[in-house]
Amino acid sequence: MARVVVTGGAGYIGSHAVRALVDAGHGVAVIDDLSAGHAGSIPAGVPLTRASVHDVDTVRRALQDHGADAVMHFAAWLVASESVHKPLEYYANNVSGTLAVLEAMHAAGVRRFVYSSSCAVYGEPPAVPIVETLDTRPINAYGETKLAVERALPHVARAHGLQWIALRYFNAAGAHPSGTIGEDHSPESHLIPLAIRAAMGGPALRVFGQDYPTPDGTCLRDYIHVCDLADAHLRALAALENGGESRAYNIGSGTPHSVRAVIDTVSRVVGKPVAWEPADRRAGDPPALYAASDRAKRELDWQPRYADLETIVRHAWQWHSTHPRGYEGSDH
Length: 332
What we know:
Layout: E1 3-7, H1 12-23, E2 27-31, E3 48-49, H2 56-66, E4 70-73, H3 80-85, H4 87-108, E5 112-118, H5 141-160, E6 163-169, E7 171-173, H6 191-199, E8 205-208, E9 220-225, H7 226-241, E10 247-251, E11 256-258, H8 259-270, E12 276-279, E13 288-289, H9 294-299, H10 309-322
Parallel strand pairs: 1-2, 1-4, 2-3, 4-5, 5-6, 6-10, 7-9, 8-12, 9-13
Antiparallel strand pairs: 9-11
């Protein structure tokens, strides 16, 4: 079993990866500044170092104290539309923060790195489903920051012996089937929790763009269950432990769903209509993004267990209906 330090392990995807690591018997420690994560999402007994990933000395000490074999790096800002207006902040947080983690790893002698990347590296792809061999042409600063790190990793590998895998997520969604951990962003920017809030009597969902070249005019996206993402991280770690190649992998369900289809599914699962209103397109939103994940299936032996949209929404609804105020009372 490996000893893994998870940066951003109190966040949405990171906390599910931590749970999966614990369930698989790995030793786990978390580094998170709790600016967006929640201490209440971390399983009992998992140590938390409350610190910024920019603090190289603190990250290095945490790696050494835990005897880390590997790092899973989730700590990043993630709102593509926001990055259009805050590029400097996104570069500072996502690129400089990751380089600081890599510096700390080098100082601590830790050489296995599983990186949280994004399908945003592809920009507006010339064809779908998206394969890893397509050109990477981000159209927003968020995608550029993820690609900048991906481009740095082979250089670090050549200089310092780093083994790495970058997982290019599509749209993370859902919650742990147990209902004990889920999605709690502030502010929330993801479609499914916003649609659930609207169905629960919250603000009307804003649908950004109804004139895209898609069957119903709304964006098409690939929704991948957060537990399937977590499983992909464990399989990436195992691949590195077994001497697997350092490279990037798409992690998606491979099935596109429109915004309108998500609204309909949420309405059906919740049993109430989703109030929504039209809004202008957002900068940096491609019409269609969905994955071909054949490489991950073939080389990582990964297969999504919860690929059905209704299952994803049902798990999300289970979390939100039992945690209407999220991780109430926990640190933010």
